[in-house]
Description:
This protein has one domain (28-168, 187-204, 219-284). It is 28% helix and 19% strand. It is built from seven helices and nine strands; from the N terminus they run H-H-E-H-E-H-H-H-E-H-E-E-E-E-E-E. The strands form two sheets. Strands 3-2-4-1-5-9-8 form a seven-stranded mixed beta sheet, with helices on both faces. Strands 6-7 form a two-stranded antiparallel sheet. The longest helix is centred in the middle third of the chain and has 16 residues, at 150-165. It is globular and about 50 Å long. The relative contact order is 0.20. Residues 1-20 have low confidence and may be disordered.
Amino acid sequence: xxxxxxxxxxxxxxxxxxxxxxxxxxxxxxxxxxxxxxxxxxxxxxxxxxxxxxxxxxxxxxxxxxxxxxxxxxxxxxxxxxxxxxxxxxxxxxxxxxxxxxxxxxxxxxxxxxxxxxxxxxxxxxxxxxxxxxxxxxxxxxxxxxxxxxxxxxxxxxxxxxxxxxxxxxxxxxxxxxxxxxxxxxxxxxxxxxxxxxxxxxxxxxxxxxxxxxxxxxxxxxxxxxxxxxxxxxxxxxxxxxxxxxxxxxxxxxxxxxxxxxxxxxxxxxxxxxxxxxxxxxxx
Length: 284
């Protein structure tokens, strides 16, 4: 882990401006217990979209996975049609233009928490890791299609993650997604169709619920897109805990705790309309 942190620090300093404000990854207690699980292939981090702290926690999990000496594929719950824009963003050259092009994609103009400043900052960190050879690739896996059911969306999400894993022997696939998609059991009031996690190989998948001590998240809920209050989910000690009792909902193998109160991360695009606007896109 030490050599990885040093490499990230050097890249942050010497990155010709593209990583000047990027924090160095922090050690994540309990992460090593994940890599010791036989047959592990998929690690899902189920979050409440729109916080500052969860993308930072995921960043540290990715760094820890990279130090495990296995190939690492990172999955983000973003539309699959963004893949080309993200690939250009991750490249070494023309970063300013690639950033503008990425933020022009529709998904960054819908303020449901996935289009936050924290998510853009996470992508900047993933770019450093990829340029340094510490991760293999970053893939999008939300293949929602107009007119299809929510069940079909879950099936496509799982299929996209499995397809991303296939080209990389012995790879770890780490995916950041909404907590419903990451559940291995049906949840009352949602469904009744299998969630993404239920469609991945059960013995190869670990699903973690992100916990914190409450706070706020920038989410799309009743009343629009804005900061919304969060109740404490018991995550007062930062790190990974592999126990079904650690998660506040059934369907998870454990919890990944930020150890902090959540803070809402606003939209990444410049000149976003004030809350409670949920989109800058005109219908049609």
